[in-house]
Amino acid sequence: MVEKDDWRLRGQEENLFKKKLYLRTWTQVKEDWDHDHCDFCWDKFSEYPEDMHEGYTTEDNYSWICPKCVEDFKDMFQWIFEDKKD
What we know:
This protein is α+β, with helices and mostly antiparallel strands. It has two helices and six strands. The strands form two sheets. The protein has a four-stranded mixed β-sheet with strand order 5-4-1-6. A two-stranded antiparallel ribbon has the order 2-3.
């Protein structure tokens, strides 16, 4: 459980509270968009070897969350976990 003043919290509850999350592999969908960041800790998702390749995302792939932050914030945000959809 994390504290309400955790440094990673920056108002995400407005968009992510009680959202459905899907475990997905990150893939580049636009030529000019080669990465995303975890909405909490800012770790990078991309196809590059040094970055994360799998994480949790909203149905529209707009918000990405790393596994550590999902574990840390799942109770606070009351996420609903759906089957993996690639």
